[in-house]
């Protein structure tokens, strides 16, 4: 019965990943070990090592598989609304207790571990970048994005300010912060020509007063 | 002779910081210890601990004091040229062998060590943000920056894409990357009204073709 066997294997994998996140949230990344995950999940240590070479790799997979749906990209036809919805979802994850602290630790670890850094990019950043670029390309075709905007920079420009807040200032990641960043990125830093009232600005949340 | 005594103290401090960077570059952050710095610098371990509570704090100070001049902000009157010069200096540091790997490790450590994260912000990020905002405020007064641009976001928007490349994709940080990011941030993502030829775009490097 290969189907039942496959299902059992999938269930075992999911149980290990769930245990990784639960235990990681309880005791923190530093104290998390593959041995402790194995013990709590009732799995063999070697079963885990066969699939994941390090606790970083196990944690990365667990974070991605169990939170994938939160990073979906809507396409309602309104690029600002869609970017906003997607980025709200991303910052809710980053700011939440089950994802944020472990993901922060994982990125910390990726500064020492090139294999983990490569996995983070291959498994997480690149797929998200592909979705972002596809959504923005459609927006450009519909005239909602500047035809000059370099799509290869989209991830760096859109998510850079979020990672800066998450990793460097470690300040709060709120929807209001996302709104302000999107407003600023869409409007650009350089002065616009006159006749501001007539420019075709999409209906975003209001521009904040400048300090 | 308080002057001579002060000078000796300053020289000792500088010798310890230089040794920290030299040794850190040789053996890497993970293997760096305060004991090893003390031994090589010919200083007492307690002398170092009296001043720096952890190797992270010692390394942060060493990186900042010995590279401060590389982060100066010019003011030639042309805001794009000045930002470009300052950010070129910053990415040269980040991409260089004496600063980059140790600074990367320090940010990694700051993901686990809230005291180090606070020191990084207080000693490095906030002073740089203040200089950036002051330079941009002058530019805004001269009409070189959109009057709507929210200056409190300046660091996140300008340096976010650099940290994204440095910490997440870990791709090369080149002057060409800086040029493309500045072009995109100044122009903005939203479509401009017609009559593009007449808009008062500062003379920056050419806009790259969109992929």
Automatic annotation (TrEMBL), chains A, B:
Highest taxon of the lineage: Bacteria
Keyword Transcription regulation: yes
Gene3D superfamilies xrefs: Homeodomain-like, Tetracycline Repressor, domain 2
Coiled coil region boundaries: none
Keyword DNA-binding included in the entry's annotation: yes
Ranges of the DNA-binding region feature: 33-52
HTH tetR-type domain residues: 10-70
Annotated signal peptide: none
Transmembrane segments: none
Listed Pfam families: TetR_C_11 (PF16859), TetR_N (PF00440)
Keywords: DNA-binding, Transcription, Transcription regulation
PANTHER family the UniProt entry points to: HTH-TYPE TRANSCRIPTIONAL REGULATOR RUTR, TETR-FAMILY TRANSCRIPTIONAL REGULATOR
UniProt protein name: TetR/AcrR family transcriptional regulator
Species of provenance: Nonomuraea insulae
